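Hey team,

Filing this mostly as a record. A colleague (T.K.) asked me to run one chain through the structure pipeline before their review meeting, and I want the input and output archived in the tracker in case anyone asks later how it was produced. No errors, nothing strange. Just documentation.

Input sequence:
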Amino acid sequence: MNGAEFDQPPTTPRIRYLVCTTPFSGSTRLCRHLFQAGLGVPHEYYNPNQVKFLSERWGLTPQQIEKYPQCLRERRTTPNGLWGCALHWSHYELHRSLLDPQFASIQHYIYLVRRDTIAQAVSFQYSSPARASAASASLDPVERSFYLLEQQNQVWRAFFAQRGLQPLVLTYESFLENPSLTLSRIAEYLFGAAREIQKPEGPLPEEAFSPPMETTRSLLAQRLGERSHRLDPGDRKFLFLAGLHRSGTTPLFQILRDHPDISGFRDTGASKDEGQHLQSVIPSGKIYGGPGRFGFSPEAHLTETSPLASLQDARKLFTQWSRHWDLGRSYLLEKTPPSLIRTRFLQALFPQSHFIVLLRHPIAVSLATRKWAKGSSLEQLLEHWLHCHQIFEEDKKSLQYLLVVRYEDLIQEPTAKLKEVYQFLGLEARTSSLLDPGGNDGYFEEWGNIAQADPKLVERLLDRFESRLQPFGYSLRPG
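Output structure:
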């Protein structure tokens, strides 16, 4: 619904609402019926593709993006004063600066969920040829899609709870079964009383699954059903390896998991064998914008006060991770970069948690992260480094078992530093040749080139960050 035929005459919105949802929940279908019923022109207006298309059509340059919400209100409010928008959490993360100021004026929230998350994951997985091909080769990527959708529902529920909101909760299945009743409920919720609206007749057809999709759905349901019995973590020792993306956690993880007394994830198919992609309890870093961004989301910081810090969630998380571990080993190792700002939460779930946190020079981390954090400036990436480590500095005061390792020390003195790591764990020391002593050299050379090409940028970054980085033992001065 991004064509000019959906634009409306200028009207001041009297009633504003959000349809908060997840991919392949049926929101597009619902929005079409809301429009036909005269209940606004709701659409995924903050989908980056829609933002780009509509901004260009309405004559906004990228530098005028702050005017986009106003253009939406002016052009997509119906004559009866209704303005609506369908919003995925990932779109919210991309456009927080545009959306946060609007929440005070949004009176109504509709939360659309799909009860059959397994079918939703299958729909998502088969929505592109590449993902469909991956699903035909293995059930693992479909399971990870299931976990990601569960995580997104988790963050929406936390969003409502933290703001004291009571949304109108609707299910995709009930909408299909009785669209007339669903639309009537929405109209009454928005206007505060029953309202005559145009309603579709009878139930709506369900999404047609191809034979391969049906097979995948059946197999995934069987796999998840077999794990429905929750395991008790008991007094097992967990070893959490944390540090921002590109801090050197991957080579250290590979070294540690090769120790005979440590079991770490291997050949899971998930990116870097990170546990954040292999469970549905803790929202992954991707949910909050990914590398170089996740820490800016207040919701990403988890402590023992989180509603998720429960025995039930500890058992659920342990059950989902346990199939990737040899439970007979002394330590169960997991590596996820956002755990840097979740140490207190993990300790609350698993009291025998040991933490190894890697610190790496902010210039190396920021320059290395740029390829993953497209759209983020070097200044923003440095701010993210500081923000996350300042959170950790406070959180670490509550940790029982913690070892902080500087990446620079680890690559220059691997034998001594690995011995320190194994002493911390009470294990026999082992050496490794996986660490590159020149791991930072290329990034420092790049930083020197930047300093020569743009000395004013370096001066500005020094003014903003130098004094704040000194307590961490780092400097931005080139050379």
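Quick notes for T.K.: The chain has a mean pLDDT of 94. The two ends are 54 Å apart (CA to CA).
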